[in-house]
Every structure is written in C-alpha cells, then in structure tokens.
Design a protein that fits this description.
Structural class: alpha+beta
Number of strands: 13
Order of helices and strands: HHEEEEEEEEHEEEEHE
Number of helices: 4
Shape: globular
Strand content: 25-35%
Length: about 190
C-alpha cells in the first residue's frame, strides 16, 4: 500500500520546489547590476553610452549582437532610442568594434557579395528599391565595406541571428533612426 497521503504529497512538492529554486534561481535573483551594466536572464543588457563612447559628438549608435538591440543617443542626450534588431547568423559574419555612418540612402538597392552568392547561388545579382529589397526602406552605410544598419522586408528576422553581417531593424524603426542619425554618427558593434 502506498504511503502517499495528501499531506506527504504537499510536503514533497514544497521540498522539490525549494530544491529547484536553489538550483535555478528566480529571474529576479539573476537580474543584478554588474559593472554598471544591468542584465536579466535573457541576456538583455542596457549599458550606458559612457561604457562605450568617449563623447556623443554627432550622436552614438550601439549595436549589441548578444541582446539583439540597437541603442541611439543624440549628441545633446535629449533623445534615447532602443530598437530590437536582427544580427549576423554566425560569429564569422559578425564584425565588432568602432565604425561610423558614411552614407544614408532612402530606397537602397542591394547586390549580394560574392561570398553571399557562393552560399546562396539562387539569389539574384541585383534587387532595386521596393518591397522585395532585403535592405528595406532605408540604409545607413558604415565605414566598413558591405556593412549596414538597414530595414528589412522580412520582419521574422528581427530578434534573430539571421543576417549576412548587417544589422536589421523594422522598416518604421530604421526610418526613425535614419532621421535621427547623421553622417559621422559614431557606431559600435559589440
């Protein structure tokens, strides 16, 4: 005969729950400040601009490829924006460090690089501006060749590792960032 009285089942549940909490702490316990950067269980970080830039001359854009977020600070600190983004598919495609915006284009055209074509030979050689363009409605060209912060025609990519090196935003959000950023805005990818 089983010794599983209702009070034994309750006690067992309480003990198992306490053991689980000691092994897997609640998210609130994991959300602790560390070195000025707040983190939570999903690895989302909200750093301060001072953690990455010496100043805000021309504004600053920080693209966090771990949290998959883009942050913008205006030069006078009156504007702060935070956007979800797509990031490169692999670490090999991810470039990190400092760059800047060198060109802004509304209605960009797109040509896949040779390495993109090698990975995806079915892709077209050229896509003009419009709804089928993988760069979406706006593109911020960086000083690194082939790297951009741009919109996307495929909103399923946002929040994922899905690009060939660029940082993607929803079209309405890249349009907003496009208006805020200037030629010369400093950019850092981490």
């Amino acid at each position: 005969m089983s010794n599983d009285k209702p009070e034994n089942k309750s006690r067992r549940k309480v003990l198992l729950g306490a053991a689980a909490l000691s092994i897997f702490p609640a998210p609130a316990l994991l959300a602790q400040a560390s070195g000025g950067t707040r983190r939570n269980i999903s690895s989302f970080r909200v750093p301060r601009w001072q953690d990455h830039f010496d100043n805000l001359k021309n504004g600053a854009i920080l693209s966090d490829t771990v949290s998959r977020m883009v942050q913008f600070w205006s030069e006078d600190e009156s504007v702060y924006k935070l956007y979800p983004s797509s990031v490169p598919m692999t670490d090999d495609l991810t470039r990190r460090g400092y760059t800047r915006i060198i060109r802004k284009v509304v209605g960009p055209s797109w040509r896949p690089t040779a390495s993109m074509k090698a990975r995806n030979p079915e892709w077209p050689d050229y896509v003009g501006p419009g709804p089928d363009n993988p760069l979406g409605t706006h593109a911020l060209y960086l000083s690194w060749k082939y790297y951009r912060i741009h919109g996307t025609n495929d909103t399923r990519k946002i929040g994922r590792r899905s690009s060939n090196g660029c940082i993607g935003l929803y079209n309405n959000q890249i349009a907003e960032l496009f208006d805020l950023a200037k030629i010369g805005t400093q950019v850092k990818l981490i």
